[in-house]
Amino acid sequence: MISKSILPIVVIVGRTNVGKSTLFNSLANKKIAITKNEKNTTRNCLNSNISWLGKEFILVDSGGFEFDLKNIILKKVYEQNIINLNSADLILFLVDGQEGINNLDKDISIFLRKIKKKIILVINKIENYQRDKDNIYEFYKLGLKDIFLVSAEQKTGIGDLLDLVIKYIYSDNDDKNLNKRTDHKEDIEVLNSNNSDNEEKKIDKKIIKIAVVGKPNVGKSSFVNKILGEERNIVDSMSGTTRDSVDSFCNYNNQDYMLIDTAGIRKKNKIKESLEFYSVLRSKNAIKQCDVCILIIDTENEINEQDAKIAGIVSKNFKPLIVAINKWDLVEKNDYIYAIDKFNTMIDNILGFARKYTQKIFLSALTGEGILKIFDFIKKTWHQYNFRIKTHDVNYLIKKSITKNPPGFSKYSKRLKIYYSLQVDVCPPTFVLFVNDPVLMHFSYKRYLENQLIKEFNFSKTPIKIITKKK
After folding, report:
1. What is the DSSP pairing of strand 2-3 with strand 255-261?
2. pTM metric for this prediction
3. In sequence order, which residues have a C-beta less than 8 Å from that of residue 373 and are 6 or more positions away?
4. Is 75 helix (H, G, I), strand (E, B) or coil?
């Protein structure tokens, strides 16, 4: 079963350029959302788990509220905002304390009052209370009784605002709200599976982070939306629709997952806007932070050099890789065998050594074909990514491998000696070989030992790392 998180949800809303993303970053105490003095910088809603005073909640940064729905992107931002408002336990309605009230603020206030949710009116950009206090009184015209002053940029009032948020969402009984949310419509089963495995029930309860990467317009957001069962991320044929890396949470077979929908990564010479530059940086950072990468490839287009570069970024960061060939519904049934052989060959050609641990899956984000199966891929990959081997077994294999194929003499007429070895880390499985001189370890012999470890301990779904140290 795939279900949503049961933590309370706090949503930040407001018109464009009032500082929603800045407030989101300040409350989360880290720079997650891209902030820029440009309209509609934020399109997809961003989530972050917040812990304050021993209580947790999910904070959501939304796109700028607009009621002019002629623009297809603004219409989808509006629809996404409605989804988040319906699931909210508390709304932070943000306004600009320097600009004052405008007609859009009034329209948003009227709209929010109709949905009958707890609302705090947050007046932003109040850097100096004595100077700005006369600007505050007009905001009472919006008809909201709970008003709070902050400067998101200077982080003034952020701690007090968090105190107030906790008071609102955990009022009366600490667990009352959480117990209610188990019957909330956000927790309805959206996809079904009867799979059960005793071993998988023992998995560490840590959230598995999955980065969904690829070129623009290959179906990354559609893939995430299909898993979540709703249009959580904006989908459009226009390149660059996704800007921030968007985190969404779900649970499948009692395991929590974070799905990170990233911006499409294009060639450097095609990146002309600074926003896209920062979006690509966020995508690369998502790869660094994740546990498993899913590279989405489109059946309508040939696999090219850019796909290879993205796979290279994943490989460079020693992350497990699953290549998902999307839009499989467009392939004629009579062409299945030909198409599978074609894509398998093309993918192996771009992956290089990474093909040894890369998995492939054919799916359709439109019809849902293959979507649930990918969780089985992820879970097995996750187990290997966290697998530990006893030091005795590592040493035995390395010694056996040396006996079978001893290292040759280097150009310095010296031979490499490996005294002992052990696994020192997981994610990825990392092995240290203590040698007489690390310089003598030729890359081809290192690759040979790596292959022996992969074969012996079945590291078929994850990269491994070998480090040489002088004894």
Report:
1. unpaired
2. 0.66
3. 361, 363
4. helix
